[in-house]
Specification:
The chain is an alpha/beta fold. It folds into three domains: about 1-50, no CATH class; about 55-110, no CATH class; about 115-204, no CATH class. Helix content is about 50%, strand content about 20%. It is built from seven helices and eleven strands. The chain has helices at about 5-15, 20-30, 35-50, 60-70, 80-85, 85-110, 185-204; strands at about 115, 125, 130, 135-140, 140-145, 150, 155, 160, 165, 175, 180. The protein has a four-stranded mixed β-sheet with strand order 1-5-8-11. A four-stranded mixed β-sheet has the order 2-3-6-9, with no helix packed on it. The longest helix has 23 residues, at about 85-110. The radius of gyration is 21 Å and the shape is globular.
Length: about 200
Amino acid sequence: MKCNVAVVFMHDYLDGDLAREDSMQLKRHLTQCSACYARYESLERTDALVKAISIEKAPDDLGDRIMKSLPSSRRPAAWTSWVRRHPAVSAAAIFMVVMLSSFVSMWNQSRELSVSGPDLEHVVIEGNKVIVPEGQKVTGDLTVMNGDVQVLGDLDGDLTVIDGSVVPLASTAHIAGEIKTIDRAVDWFWYKVSSYFGTLAYGS
């Protein structure tokens, strides 16, 4: 198995959408490729962090635990009083800071090509270039990280390119959804957060 295929399989595996045979191939590859194994561990940690923020209500004693972890002082500062009066907002702010640092850290460490989407059967990968061939149709959203995208056929969904570029569309190309280009780590962070909470809102 090539590393670029393993990267695609990692995302599907963490989402629980990878077939059993493909999962076994991925596990064998991870035991043989230290670079892919390190990338998988990073993705697994980030996935666990994103799932952690899906808790709609913080525990009742979370504010008290946060306050106890702060260094004591003889004279409470004004911001400490504000934190005591707004424990839920303070907890949410701490979660956001942890998420941001984690995403930025993973962004800086991971520079390999990553391709994700529900329909990758007709997608062609050549080096760092992802191609939707002429005469082929890809159904669903397509997300490419650290690579260039060339659409010659049909894409029935949104195209999101993170830290890459979109080759000018050919006359035969057709993209039904939006084209989004994200170039900076902070933009990517807000894209992930908005996408995640958008999914929560849609599911509720």
